[in-house]
Design goal:
The complex is a heterodimer of chains A (274) and B (442). Chain A contains 7 helices and 4 strands, in the order αααααβαββαβ. Chain A has 274 residues and is mainly alpha-helical. The radius of gyration of chain A is 32 Å and the shape is elongated. In chain A, strand 2 and strand 3 form a beta hairpin. Chain A has 2 domains: 89 residues, no CATH class; 107 residues, Fusion Protein Consisting Of Minor Coat Protein, Glycine Rich Linker, Tola, And A His Tag, Chain: A, Domain 2 (2-Layer Sandwich). Helices cover 41% and strands 8% of the residues of chain A. Chain B is α+β, with helices and mostly antiparallel strands. In chain B, 17% of the residues lie in helices and 45% in strands. Chain B is built from 5 helices and 31 strands. Chain B has a 5-stranded mixed sheet with strand order 4-3-5-6-7, with helices on both faces. A 4-stranded antiparallel sheet of chain B has the order 10-9-8-31, with no helix packed on it. In chain B, helix 2 packs across helix 5. The chains are: A mainly alpha (274), B alpha+beta (442). At the A-B interface, helix 1, helix 3, helix 4, strand 1 and helix 6 of A face helix 1, strand 1, strand 2, helix 5 and strand 15 of B.
């Protein structure tokens, strides 16, 4: 039989626990239901200043470049054949013998080269349309950029333009501007494996642990199960080199919030520039 | 008893509170950032002279590192750092291990070092490749060979480095057969010539007395097929580069041209004009000499090129009034057009990698060289000239070679990475056309 004292003890314990629950919920739960005021205001202020020029202005800029190209008076030089006094020998596109050999062959077997083969090339009808997206690509395409230089002694260094509409995954620990700053920095150090087969599918995740001084402590490839594929291994190592590149050290991170960015995952996806 | 019941209640309540506190606490969220853009520039590498205590072997070591450097730089994917900036002496690297900080300090992302040791059987060439940023060794191999083979050893080392860093099979230990041209336009002398892919070891295979055209390599052997006007008769010949033996493919009632090997090297696809000006594509089994007709359409059907799995053939045809590229099954059925852009398309050549078909195109009065996927999508034009023709793929399907001609003549060969960003002239002693890239040497 329960005494009055024992009954009081039980009620006290129950009351203590219930109050403890409510108190714990207030202390721990409620602050995370809404971000602290500093976190709330910071991204708004920085987003307007930083994100705007990065994601909008440069896209317009590439469009302006494309427009200028479209307005160029003569993007394609006239074919030399047209200035010749008489139709020059057509360079046959076929893998048949060239015309001089074809004539010799025709003489031998009594054939005539098809008229279609002798048709001189028509003059350029209109300049090819330059696509703003072309400037995003690391792959050359003359049909979209007709005024490309043909020969280079040294391979040109080409930086991809901004990929509109690909802001990447945001973090709740970094503001949009802070994420953009980090992304822009790493992009300058990432040598994209442009020529690999199905390079657009070589998506690599690197887990990065960052020291308090914003230098990289470790950069580990996450999807190690694919490392037996030499193309993936090469792509993964190129991503790893981007993070470990001294040019990208220290990382562009807010110096006063080391606990926020101590570890992170960077996802390298070249699809937009291939 | 009651006391125990109360204490159990307290314990259970404590566990409940703990669980509540655990659930209420925020999960530790990693930062996730997508990197969707990057740069395309040569990887800075430090290739040191291959060291030796023997002076003659040291000279060979210098030559080897020079060829390795030239191969890698020509690919457009690597940039050799100035050797005068190297801090750690080359002869210390293999003996003591690389001091990564020294190499990172000069901007090297990869380091190559080696040694050459003379022995009774020739030279032993050892090399190692390091990732200086990750701080680990990526490759290490040793070759034993005669001194005369030093160039091939250098190409093989370059192939290993290229493969390890790009994931792609190398293409430096290969050769090029092409048509060397000389003399005035009216009396042009055309000779078969062969050289290493870097232009070394150049020699002529024919003396120029017969007109020769369209050499094509057997993808599976050091053998070529070509067309020759021997004794005034145009015929397709086979030429074994190892033995020097030549044989004619066969006697046909018309003119044979555009020969190209199947991937297994056991058969050849070619075109045959039989009356009129139309042509069709045939396949001949080289062992049985059995000939099978693959196309049967009243038009010019030519330029057959097998897919690397041998299941399909790309070809050009003007059956739709203009030259376009078609793909059919290897037995000739299911021909379907894959090129639909403006202009005329021709000379399809299927990549050994299988993912692309190279082609030439006339559009707007200009010749272009381009690539498209086998279904016709993803067309990209990567170079242009008054006349560009004769594309041939490196065995890894990453680089193309072809020739360009200006309005005043003067054919020159060029190579280009399939990204279109690294076009370079292939220097030859005479004018050059119709290159054919060999498979990797055995």
């Amino acid at each position: 039989m329960m005494t009055a004292t024992e009954d009081m003890r039980g009620s006290f314990a129950t009351s203590f626990i219930v109050h403890g629950l409510i108190f714990a919920a207030l202390i721990i739960g409620l602050p995370h239901l809404r971000p602290p005021p500093l976190e709330l205001s910071q991204p708004i202020a920085i987003d307007i200043v930083d994100v705007g020029p990065v994601t909008t202005t440069q896209v317009q800029g590439t469009g302006q470049i494309a427009k200028q190209n479209n307005n160029a008076p003569a993007p394609l030089p006239p074919p030399p054949k047209q200035s010749a006094p008489e139709p020059a020998k057509p360079a046959p596109i076929k893998e048949q013998p060239k015309v001089d050999e074809r004539k010799a062959l025709d003489d031998l077997i009594g054939n005539e080269v098809k008229k279609a083969d002798k048709t001189p090339p028509k003059p350029a009808a209109k300049p090819a349309q330059a696509d703003p997206q072309q400037f995003d690509s690391l792959l050359k395409n003359l049909s979209k950029a007709p005024d490309q230089t043909q020969q280079t002694d040294a391979p040109p260094v080409k930086t991809a333009g901004p990929a509109a509409g690909s802001p990447g995954i945001q973090s709740d620990k970094l503001t949009i501007s802070e994420t953009d700053a980090l992304r822009r920095q790493i992009e300058q150090c990432w040598n994209v494996p442009t020529g690999a087969r199905d390079a657009g599918d070589l998506i690599v995740e690197i887990h990065v642990v960052v020291n308090a001084d914003r230098t990289v402590q470790s950069a580990d490839i996450v999807n190690t199960d694919k490392m037996s594929d030499p193309f993936f291994r090469a792509a993964a190592e190129s991503a790893q080199r981007a993070i470990l590149n001294p040019k990208c050290s220290p990382l562009n991170l807010p110096p006063d919030r080391a606990t926020d960015w101590h570890d992170m995952t960077l996802r390298f996806n070249p699809k937009d520039v291939l | 008893m009651q006391k125990k019941s109360n204490s159990n209640f307290v314990v259970r309540a404590f566990i409940l509170v703990s669980c509540f506190l655990f659930l209420a606490s925020p999960a530790k969220a990693d930062i996730h950032v997508d990197i969707t853009r990057g740069i395309s520039q040569p990887i800075p590498v430090a290739i040191t002279n291959f060291a030796s205590t023997d002076s003659n072997a040291a000279n060979v070591g210098n030559e080897i590192s020079g060829v390795v450097t030239a191969d890698l730089e020509r690919s457009g994917l690597f940039h050799q750092l100035n050797p005068s900036s190297f801090i750690q002496p080359a002869d210390q690297i293999l003996a003591q291990g690389p001091r990564m900080a020294d190499w990172k300090a000069i901007g090297a992302q990869a380091l190559v070092a080696g040694t050459v040791t003379p022995g009774p059987g020739g030279l032993r060439v050892e090399f190692r490749l390091w990732d200086t940023l990750a701080g680990n060794q990526m490759a290490g191999l040793a070759y034993t060979t005669t001194e005369a083979n030093w160039r091939r050893i250098a190409h093989k080392i370059a192939d290993v480095i290229y493969n390890r860093i790009t994931g792609e099979t190398g293409y430096f230990d290969t050769r090029i057969v092409y048509i060397a041209e000389s003399g005035p336009v009216t009396r042009r002398v055309k000779r078969l010539a062969i050289m290493d892919q870097d232009g070394a070891n150049h020699k002529f295979l024919t003396d120029g007395s017969d007109l020769v055209l369209t050499p094509r390599f057997n993808p599976a052997a050091q053998e070529i097929t070509f067309m020759s006007f021997r004794n005034g008769r145009p015929r397709v010949y086979l030429y074994n580069l190892e033995t020097g033996q030549q044989r004619m493919m066969g006697e046909f009632p018309g003119m044979t041209f555009a020969p190209r090997f199947a991937p297994d090297g056991r058969s050849v696809v070619f075109s045959l004009i039989r009356g009129g000006s139309n042509s069709d594509i045939f396949n001949m089994d080289l062992a049985s000499r059995h000939v099978k007709q693959l196309t049967n359409f009243p038009a010019i059907n030519t330029g057959g090129s097998y897919s690397p799995d041998g299941r399909q053939v790309a070809f050009e045809s003007d059956r739709s009034a203009h030259q376009q590229i078609y793909v059919m099954d290897a037995d000739g059925v299911n021909p379907h057009r894959i090129s639909f852009g403006d202009g005329r398309y021709g000379t399809p050549v299927w990549s050994p990698r299988g993912d692309l078909i190279a082609f030439t195109k006339i559009q707007g009065g200009q010749f272009y060289l381009g690539v498209m996927r086998p279904d016709g999508s993803g067309e990209r034009l990567i170079t242009q000239a008054w006349h560009v023709e004769g594309p041939t793929w490196a065995p890894n399907g990453r680089v193309l070679m072809y020739f360009k001609e200006g309005p005043s003549g003067g054919n020159k060969m060029y190579s280009i990475d399939l990204t279109g960003m690294n076009e370079r002239e292939v220097v030859t002693p005479l004018d050059a056309s119709d290159p054919a890239w060999s498979p990797l040497l055995p």
